[in-house]
């Protein structure tokens, strides 16, 4: 298991180095407020990022959404995606999957808040046809810790000179999670 204290320190250093200034961190009460609005708890590492590093504004490429606040936030994006998904004939956004970063072109990085390690998923809706939304979900990383380590090392699929072949595994639980009611 990674030393989460060290990880948080390294994320802070890289974020400050890249951005110069970061938004203020979120108070613990705001994390509780966000969890009430969402209806589920955040994985501990994600909560710590918001409480100890900043309220978004750091991370890969387009940076993490703020948790709460003005404009586009993780909480607002989740509630909007869930609302739209539930009003469609075929659900496309599962409960408990929090969008944390917008990659553009409809793609999101999202944390499965029901998974013990906070798996990071990629939602890539562009090639989906005939409401086969389970085909839009991929596992970017089995844990938020690993996802952050990949960002810190500069080896993410989104990096210009990344070594990987870019093939992500489909999220095997997508179909079951999308078919759940509520």
From TrEMBL:
* SUPFAM superfamilies, A to Z: SMI1/KNR4-like
Residues forming the Knr4/Smi1-like domain are: 25-154
- What InterPro entries does the record point to? Knr4/Smi1-like_dom, Knr4/Smi1-like_sf
Q: What is this protein called?
A: SMI1/KNR4 family protein
Source species, please?
Microbispora maris
Tell me the lineage of the source organism.
Bacteria, Bacillati, Actinomycetota, Actinomycetes, Streptosporangiales
């Amino acid at each position: 298991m990674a030393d989460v204290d060290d990880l948080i320190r390294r994320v802070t250093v890289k974020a400050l180095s890249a951005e110069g200034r970061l938004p203020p961190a979120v108070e613990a009460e705001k994390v509780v407020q966000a969890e009430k609005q969402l209806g589920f708890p955040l994985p501990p590492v994600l909560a710590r990022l918001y409480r100890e590093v900043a309220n978004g504004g750091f991370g890969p490429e387009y940076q993490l959404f703020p948790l709460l606040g003005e404009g586009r936030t993780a909480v607002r994006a989740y509630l909007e995606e869930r609302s739209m998904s539930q009003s469609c004939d075929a659900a496309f956004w599962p409960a408990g999957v929090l969008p944390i970063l917008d990659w553009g072109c409809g793609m999101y990085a999202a944390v499965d808040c029901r998974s013990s390690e906070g798996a990071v998923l990629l939602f890539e809706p562009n090639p989906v046809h005939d409401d086969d939304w389970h085909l839009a979900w991929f596992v970017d990383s089995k844990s938020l810790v690993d996802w952050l380590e990949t960002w810190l090392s500069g080896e993410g699929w989104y990096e210009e000179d990344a070594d990987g072949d870019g093939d992500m595994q489909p999220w095997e639980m997508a179909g079951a999670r999308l078919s759940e009611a509520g």
